[in-house]
Amino acid sequence: MNAPRQDLRTRQTRLQDYQAMLARRLREARNVPAADSYLALQVGQRGWLLPLAQTGEVLDMRQPSRVPLTQPWYAGLVNARGSLLGVVDFGLFCGEGPTPLQPGSKIVVLSRQVERACGILATRVVGLRHAADLRAPAQDAAAAAAWEGRRVDDGDGRAWQVLDVRALLDAPAFLQAGRVAA
């Protein structure tokens, strides 16, 4: 009888510790300007940083409904709170192959403007990164596309590519999700 009570107390203590840590991190995040913060995500093997000011919400992974006569990288549509949201396989769009999905994979919504919003498949969401914690890499290669921002390394030496969401959403190749029927 005593062991179940002890297990319950241990779980309650862990939950309280977790809640306190989460509250502390939320307070800290509020003190950092959004312009200096990024959402870090992994698409395949590549790390991307999305400026928080240009990023919408993070949705649980669900299988998009395919749309005929679209580019192979256009994964389809999902219902996000009653609105249809186009979803892009960002790994395929970047020419790196299909985005590997795993338990915990997410759909990350680009843009806070509903009329411009779309989602990209993310293998996993890594968390927040702050500009103060990032530095230019020792060797910086030129960006391959206009929407690829600067490359940076975090304190652990992990390489990240900043995604210029506005430039991506304006890129003609990205806007041309449909393909002509043969």
Automatic annotation (TrEMBL):
Ranges of residues in domain CheW-like: 35-174
One Pfam short name: CheW
Family annotation (InterPro entries): CheW, CheW-like_dom_sf, CheW-lke_dom
PROSITE patterns noted in UniProt: CHEW
Biological processes per GO annotation: chemotaxis; signal transduction
A GO cellular component entry from the record: cytosol
Protein name per the record: CheW-like domain-containing protein
Organism of provenance: Cupriavidus yeoncheonensis
